Amino acid sequence: MGGVCVPGDELPCDDGNPCTDDLCDALHGCVNNPNNAPCDDSDVCTTLDQCANGECSSFGSLDCDDSNPCTDDLCDPTSGCSHPFVTNGTPCSGGSCQNGQCTQPVSGKLVFVSSQGHSGNFGGVTGADAFCQGLANSAGHQGIFYAWLSSESYGSSPASRFTPSGEPYVLVDGSVVANNWADLTDGSIQHPINIDENGNTTSSSFVYSFTRTNGLKGLFNDPNADCYGGDCHCQNWTTSAGQGSPTPGSAVGRTGYVDDDWTDYSFGNFCGGNFSVYCFQ
């Protein structure tokens, strides 16, 4: 310019890499030398991030261990630590995991209300027993389980199928439902059967029953029982037909109650419904 050589615009040497020092050499032009500066690899699961060989590297990891044997300790690169519950029934120190907590074996006969509903067609009382057993197995509970359910015969009733126990009947959380069989069948219980096999508390709802408080099958058209009409057991628990008056129908209990209504609450055309059952060890 004006016969004189003057510098032009500065050569852009920024390579956008925080792990290089960007220089311009008069002889060689841009030079991007690796550095060892602190950096951020945009992964919240890593620690001690530092530049090495021109790249942002991590030399540590985030500790997500919550010291709980009943959770999986995970880390997401964006959101960080998470602790989902392990499968219910997973063994832990002296017990098994239930909803993220290590619970000790309950002392007594286990009782729960099924977490899953069903129509009135169980394939008979034995099918309902298998339904309870499957839920218990899935939750990691040991032993043989039966449905608190009766059809038209005495042999189908809990009074016949169950072995009366002198041990307490308890919920998954250890709450005592009854001190023994005599207490269970004396007309009332100490605690509602409102906790399912996984330890979750359920809202008050109907449960299939056709069983009186003494464990015997229900009664038809009797002032001392909440069953009327010609069929209160969904044709021995083999039909899901939802129509008909007064048949087919079902006598039901209710989970939120401790008086006789816990098992002998009401009657309706419920065979086509989706109701739970009580399951007893």
Put the structure in a nutshell.
This protein has 281 residues and is mainly beta.
Characterize the structure shown:
The chain has a five-stranded mixed beta sheet. Strands 9-10-11 form a three-stranded antiparallel beta sheet, with no helix packed on it. The protein has four helices and 19 strands. The model has no long low-confidence stretch (mean pLDDT 89). The chain has helices at 125-138, 158-161, 181-184, 234-237; strands at residues 20-25, 29-34, 46-47, 50-52, 55-57, 60-61, 74-76, 80-82, 91-92, 95-98, 101-103, 109-113, 146-147, 169-170, 176-178, 206-208, 250-254, 266-268, 278-280. The chain is elongated and about 120 Å long. It has 281 residues and is mostly beta strands.
Descriptors for this entry?
281 residues, 9% helix, mainly beta, 4 helices, three-stranded antiparallel sheet, single chain, five-stranded mixed sheet, elongated
Task: Set out the fold topology.
Blueprint: E1 20-25, E2 29-34, E3 46-47, E4 50-52, E5 55-57, E6 60-61, E7 74-76, E8 80-82, E9 91-92, E10 95-98, E11 101-103, E12 109-113, H1 125-138, E13 146-147, H2 158-161, E14 169-170, E15 176-178, H3 181-184, E16 206-208, H4 234-237, E17 250-254, E18 266-268, E19 278-280
Parallel strand pairs: 12-14
Antiparallel strand pairs: 1-2, 3-6, 4-5, 7-8, 9-10, 10-11, 12-19, 13-19, 14-15, 16-17, 17-18
